[in-house]
Amino acid sequence: MAFEKSIYDLAYNGDFQSVMSALDESPKVITTPDSNGRLLIHWSSLGGHENIVNYLLEHKSPVDPLDDTEMTPLILAASAGKENIVRILIGAGADINHQNNQGHSALQYASSKGWKEITEMLLKNNGNVNISDVRGATPLHRAASKGNTSIVKLLLDHPGGVNVNAKDCYGNTPLHLACEEERLEDAKMLISHGAILDVQNKEKKTPLDLCSPQLARVLKEFANNLRTYIPNPPSNPNIVEL
């Protein structure tokens, strides 16, 4: 067990030579999990070490092994902001849309943590823009709640068609969460892409009920101006006149 723990530390810390030497002595360690169910590729991906990840893949490491929470190396790399590792794993055929035991995918972590390049890469490789976790939260929910404006824009502009009015298990839409956190720019973008202002969550609260009176006034004015400035606007129930 001491050997197993040390080699996982070596992989996480990027000690390439020591990892190679250890695998020369015991090749089976490449597919031997630690006490958390993680393989060397989990730890080297989390640590962001391209040379070790490439070496492990060349020596037949699985690309999508699951740890004890059903996390894959891709999810770990996306969560940690390791862009180059995400690129390597996608190129090796990693499952873009795998979800852990809480329903979190690589795209949800990248959206939540504000990793724009990784989010864009995942979307370009068929990441499911509307994937939801066990609480019903989508990447747009996560980005809007955190104020990751550049990510919100990426998701809204995705040609796959984001569901701007998706509800989580509490009945909240991304606009509810943006308003609750006083995210002005994110709320405006959501409204301009069809977010409904008067939709109610399970507590019968609309997005405007969750924000300050000042922000509510600004957003009402923005929604009305948006409708006014669109010449011959099409019938759209997502843009409400207030």
What do these coordinates show?
With 242 residues, the chain is mainly α. It folds into two domains: 1-95, Ankyrin repeat-containing domain (Serine Threonine Protein Phosphatase 5, Tetratricopeptide repeat); 105-242, Ankyrin repeat-containing domain (Serine Threonine Protein Phosphatase 5, Tetratricopeptide repeat, Alpha Horseshoe). 52% of the residues lie in helices and 0% in strands. It has 14 helices and no strands. The longest helix has 17 residues, at 213-229.
Provide a concise account of the structure shown:
With 242 residues, the protein is mostly helical. The chain has helices at 2-13, 16-25, 40-47, 50-58, 73-80, 83-91, 106-113, 116-124, 139-146, 149-157, 174-180, 184-192, 207-210, 213-229. The chain is elongated and about 70 Å long.
Task: Spell out the key features of this protein.
242 residues; mainly alpha; Serine Threonine Protein Phosphatase 5, Tetratricopeptide repeat; 2 domains; elongated
What is the element layout, followed by pairings?
Blueprint: H1 2-13, H2 16-25, H3 40-47, H4 50-58, H5 73-80, H6 83-91, H7 106-113, H8 116-124, H9 139-146, H10 149-157, H11 174-180, H12 184-192, H13 207-210, H14 213-229
Helix pairs in contact: 1-3, 3-4, 3-5, 5-6, 5-7, 6-8, 7-8, 7-9, 8-10, 9-10, 9-11, 10-12, 11-12, 12-14
